[in-house]
Amino acid sequence: MDAPVPETAAPPTRDRCATGIQGLDDILGGGIPRGNMILVSGSVGTGKTTLTLEFLVRGAERGEKSLFLSVTEASDKLIQNLSTFEFFRTDLVTSGSLVFVDVPVIYDRLGLDREEMTAEDLDLLVLTIQGLVTELGVKRVVLDSLTSVCYRIRKEERIRDFMLKLSQTLSALDCTTLLVSEVAQSPGRLSLYGVEEAIVDGVILLGNTRRQGDIIRVLQVIKMRGTSHSRAQYVIELTPIGMLMAPHLKGGHQEGG
Ligand SMILES: Nc1ncnc2c1ncn2[C@@H]1O[C@H](COP(=O)(O)OP(=O)(O)O)[C@@H](O)[C@H]1O
Ligand SMILES: [Mg+2]
Questions:
Q1: Among 43, 97, 27, 98, which residue's Cα sits nearest to residue 243?
Q2: Which domain, by its residues, includes 131?
Q3: pLDDT tens digits, the chain, 257 residues: what are they?
Q4: What is the pTM of this model?
Q5: How remote is the CA of residue 48 from the centroid of ligand 1, in Å?
Q6: 201 CB burial (10 A radius; 0-12, 13-18, 19+)
Q7: How many CB atoms lie within 10 A of CB 8?
Q8: 102 with 135: CB under 8 angstroms?
């Protein structure tokens, strides 16, 4: 751990971007350091899309414009499915505080039709996202999912380069970003290629675990730069009013990671 720093030399605490999910903000000392890029990792159905959307909704409610970049699901269908969640307010979409953009539409417009994207293709993609964020004045971005973009990048060093450019660009615009990472449930696995988690400023892992015969959802903050945080597992519940969290009182046997 870090040695104690004399008070005069203490760095200024970075402004926090509150996720709006109470338990999570408590663990993070108020939220994600503003301008940081975080991986939200987990297997299918663990709540990645729900969590990242709540992050955007809570931001939009506080007057921070939010952008959801959807790669795998068409956003009109996604919005339709979300109407069962009370926390999801369609008026935020209507007013333009919460903007949905389908990444396949960007690919089409830019003519990115190669199965494997080149470095130039990726630069164009970053520039387009930068343009959207600047034009709309966005402060929160979600990319759902990074994994599906990575399937079209394939080379580790190119993924690294793409992520670094995206991170620098969005951080310079004071934007806090969540990247969804889809992984098969296996202990220690956080991303498709393994390079993704090294580049980001933080990792939040969602998963399932077994407790007394029931499968329960859990959340764990694996890393968060600039934050001293708990690495314990928390039980989460995806309710109509949003995500609820509680400490995980171990009564059963652990599964996966
Ligand atoms: N519109 C909804 N209304 C109620 N529950 C939902 C809705 N959408 C998803 N859920 C619940 O949340 C779970 C996680 O969904 P989701 O966030 O899409 O997971 P992931 O993105 O990790 O695959 C679903 O399996 C379902 O139980
Ligand atoms: Mg999803």
A1: 27
A2: 15-205
A3: 455 544 445 555 669 999 999 999 999 999 999 999 999 999 999 999 999 999 999 999 999 999 999 999 999 999 999 989 999 999 999 999 999 999 999 999 999 999 999 999 999 999 999 999 999 999 999 999 999 999 999 999 999 999 999 999 999 999 999 999 999 877 788 998 889 999 999 999 999 998 888 999 999 999 999 999 999 999 999 999 999 999 887 654 444 43
A4: 0.92
A5: 8
A6: buried
A7: 5
A8: no
Whether residue 247 is contained in a domain is answered as no
∠ CA(76), CA(90), CA(77), 5° rounding?
Answer: 15
Residue 117 belongs to a domain:
yes
Tokens of 182: 């889809």
Q: By C-alpha distance, which of 68, 133, 139 is closest to 103?
A: 68
Q: How far is the CA of 43 from the centre of ligand 2 (A)?
A: 9
On whether residue 89 sits in a domain, the answer given is yes
Distance (Å, whole) CA 51 – CA 49: 6
Tokens standing for 195?
Answer: 């390079």
Task: Produce one character per residue of 35-52: b if its CB has 16 or more CB atoms within 10 Å, e if not.
Answer: bbbbbbbbbeebbbbbbb
Distances (CA, A) of 65 to 13, 17, 61, 80: 23, 13, 9, 21
Nearest CA to ligand 1 atom 17: 47
Q: Which residue(s) pair with 41 in the sheet?
A: 181, 205
Residues with CB under 5 A from ligand 2 (ion): 49
For residue 251, being part of any structural domain is answered with no
